[in-house]
């Protein structure tokens, strides 16, 4: 924004806030979310205790590092790199520095690992609109508070010899006009002081309307203000602020819910179906099928052995279960069992009040089953 004397500027600021959720910060890396939080990309020559991270600062850091590397000198306008390159850019170094500064957006990597510059996750962007008009207006200038501010400032300037000679060089009569009015006012205690409460009132100071001393002073101050003053009014344009929120497009819970809803709608899919699929898939694995075949063979051998019943054993069967022999219902009877010993199948059962053990060659692995 160009501010020149003799104008009044109205600067309207429209802020926009950029924020990122903590869920996006924790779930995604800076490259995935496309921005950096404060501290995720430290800038060596723009320390965080003095500067906040933003895209423009990151690009400046990238260009500054390039100047130090290519030009072997430190820019005089930013001397934080002087310890590494203890020479300011002069001559060829200055030309090299200017060439890199002109292409400041071309360099966008910083640090030893050359990380890419990206926007800040937490930022404020201010859109500025400026209007201007001529200042001051001769008729209204004496009614503005700026007139008395200027008078008090020039009184201090005229009282200091060093500044006085510089001022009278360009405005030879300005201090004389000020002293003529202030001296006359100070001599009469009934007259008010000049610019009391920042109000210019010649009548209160004891001057008649059209007094040449007042006219000369007002004309001289108008010329001085026209050449040296600029008024800038800065204000927030809108009473509300636009806030842009960066967040994950879909959370993990929402993704699962949406996927389950679509599968349930289109395929009748549910968690019960998922467990069934896992169960049948597990049972259909090759090693599982091999184990089922072995179990079936062992069961077949076991059933075959039981089919060769002795008369005593047949009398002990009741609905497929074994019971105690007659007369031994209330006595302990050894439990029938079948197991493998080495490559043999061993069957043990009660017979005539005694434990009978039979073996047969099976070539199967060891297994023990209680009847």
Question: How does this model look, in words?
Answer:
This protein has 371 residues and is α/β, with parallel strands linked by helices. It is built from twelve helices and 14 strands. It has helices spanning 22-27, 30-33, 55-71, 92-102, 145-158, 161-170, 174-187, 212-228, 252-267, 271-283, 286-307, 311-316; strands at residues 7-20, 35-36, 109-110, 115-116, 119-120, 123-134, 230-236, 242-246, 317-318, 321-322, 337-341, 344-351, 354-361, 368-370. Strands 1, 6, 7 and 8 form a four-stranded mixed beta sheet that branches. The longest helix has 22 residues, at 286-307. The protein is elongated and about 145 Å long. The two termini are 98 Å apart. The model is unreliable at 310-335 and 363-371 (pLDDT under 50).
Radius of gyration: 49 Å
Q: Please give the share of residues in helix.
A: 40-55%
Sheet-strand content, in percent, reads: 15-25%
N-to-C CA distance? 98 Å
| Helix/sheet category | alpha/beta
Q: What is the general shape? A: elongated
The biggest beta sheet, please?
4 strands, mixed
Q: Low-confidence runs (pLDDT<50, min 5 residues)?
A: 310-335, 363-371
* SSE arrangement, N to C: EHHEHHEEEEHHHHEEHHHHEEEEEE
Total DSSP helices: 12
Number of DSSP-assigned strands: 14
Quote the average pLDDT: 80
């Amino acid at each position: 924004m160009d501010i020149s004397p003799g104008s009044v500027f109205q600067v309207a600021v429209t802020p926009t806030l950029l924020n990122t959720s903590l869920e996006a910060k924790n779930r995604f890396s800076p490259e995935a979310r496309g921005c950096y939080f404060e501290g995720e990309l430290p800038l060596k020559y723009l320390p965080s205790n003095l500067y906040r991270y933003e895209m423009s600062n990151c690009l400046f850091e990238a260009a500054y590092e390039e100047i130090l590397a290519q030009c072997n000198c430190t820019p005089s306008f930013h001397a934080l790199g002087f310890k590494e390159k203890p020479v300011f850019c002069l001559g060829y170094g200055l030309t090299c520095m200017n060439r890199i500064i002109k292409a400041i957006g071309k360099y966008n990597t910083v640090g030893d690992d050359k990380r890419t510059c990206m926007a800040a996750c937490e930022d404020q962007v201010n859109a500025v609109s400026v209007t201007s008009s001529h200042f001051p207006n001769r008729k209204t200038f004496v009614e503005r508070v700026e007139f008395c501010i200027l008078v008090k400032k020039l009184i201090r300037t005229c009282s200091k010899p060093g500044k006085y000679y510089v001022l009278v060089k360009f405005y030879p009569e300005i201090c004389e006009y000020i002293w003529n009015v202030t001296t006359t006012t100070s001599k009469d205690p009934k007259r008010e002081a000049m610019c009391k409460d920042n109000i210019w009132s010649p009548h209160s100071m004891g001057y008649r309307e059209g007094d040449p001393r007042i006219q000369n002073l007002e004309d001289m101050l108008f010329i001085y203000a026209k050449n040296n003053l600029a008024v800038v009014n800065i204000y927030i344009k809108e009473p509300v602020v636009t806030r842009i929120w960066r967040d994950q497009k879909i959370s993990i819970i929402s993704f699962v819910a949406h996927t389950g809803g679509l599968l349930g709608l289109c395929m009748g899919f549910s968690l019960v179906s998922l467990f069934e699929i896992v169960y049948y898939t597990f049972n259909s694995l090759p090693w599982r099928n091999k184990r089922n075949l072995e179990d079936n063979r062992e069961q077949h051998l076991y059933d075959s052995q039981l089919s060769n019943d002795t008369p005593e054993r047949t009398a002990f069967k009741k609905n497929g279960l074994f019971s105690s022999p007659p007369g031994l219902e209330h006595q302990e009877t050894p439990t029938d069992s079948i197991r493998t010993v080495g490559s043999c199948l061993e069957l043990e059962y009660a017979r005539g009040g005694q434990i009978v053990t039979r073996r047969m060659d099976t070539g199967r692995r060891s297994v023990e089953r209680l009847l």
